């Protein structure tokens, strides 16, 4: 098999994630669907919830499949499911259940098994820049809506909402399948020429590759799950209520609030790359602690903000921290459990994440409705983040006291066999 330059594989991974990350543009369909078919906003919003719930619960399956059959077939299948699900949604006129099944379940499954592929592949190609490269990869997912949202808006004005699903589904499938065809693991036994891990990198990495079952028996796996899930609850709570918060706290119009939501959404993608890069410069622990500390301070003072400008800046920073967990955690998992099985290990971390992603916004919305304001909800998140700052302080790599020759950080341990070579490892 011809081996591509690792940066071309990184570019393909970023493009694949952008095609999948177009799911973040769902909000542009909400009003048109409500107006055309008489569905409620809550009914339409369930589609988005379903898609991301299935992303969380199927990522693990994608990680297992990558290990067994290789990344290319998984990525291309994800493109078929995601693009196909969106395309089939074009037949959901007056059939809400069909919209849920196609965009939500089928499309969401494509998102899940595809999301894990660039992460699992790129941590093996970039042992020297694990944080930055996973940040770039998942940054593509966060930035996907920047292109798809305006295109979808123009298409709906020109041809209507249902044909727009059809056109976008075909486009998503083409881009995802094409990008996925470039996904490949390094050759067996590959090492990065001329690279030697620093003492800091060695101290923050495990001394061998762990299997999925072995990682689940360590307390570190559960801490990493908690770090990402708690961060997600905080960030998504604000994302889900951003427009009304701008109107109530910042006293801006609905139109202005919608524009500001578009501005702050950029923070999601920027944060994935920035915090991942920061974690390479410092450590994953330091990066997570800093994100938690910054958010805790902001959430404790959020309710006192009355300026729309200040509110925009603060919310942008919160969204950067929200995105940061997606950039750091895959590299964190590769550091602590080795790159060989990072696909299923990190993929399974998205299972509890799926419940946190659904529960956080629901609790935030309930407290807003029950109390008539955002104070109690903001205090709850601030307290949660303050207490949670202890987690990155106490976590450390699992150690098995294996020989240094087997250490994945040394670059001498053979990586995952390519499909067809499983028995040669």
Describe this structure in words.
By secondary structure, this protein is mainly α. The protein folds into two domains: 1-185, MFS general substrate transporter like domains (Growth Hormone, Chain: A, Up-down Bundle); 196-410, Growth Hormone, Chain: A (Up-down Bundle), CATH 1.20.1250.20. Helices cover 75% and strands 0% of the residues. Helix 11 packs across helix 12 and helix 12 (254-281) packs antiparallel against helix 13 (284-301).
What is the tally of beta strands? Answer: 0
Low-confidence segments: 402-425
- Note the overall shape: globular
Distance between the termini: 17 Å
Whole-number mean pLDDT: 87
CATH class of the largest domain: Mainly Alpha
Rg from alpha-carbon coordinates: 21 Å
**Helix fraction by DSSP (H/I, runs of at least 4):** over 70%
What would CATH call the architecture of the largest domain?
Up-down Bundle
Percentage of residues in strands? under 5%
**Count of alpha/pi helices:** 17
List keywords for this structure.
single chain, 425 residues, mainly alpha, Growth Hormone, Chain: A, 2 domains, globular
Topology diagram in text:
Blueprint: H1 6-21, H2 27-37, H3 41-69, H4 71-88, H5 96-125, H6 130-159, H7 161-180, H8 199-203, H9 212-216, H10 219-240, H11 242-249, H12 254-281, H13 284-301, H14 308-337, H15 342-371, H16 375-388, H17 390-394
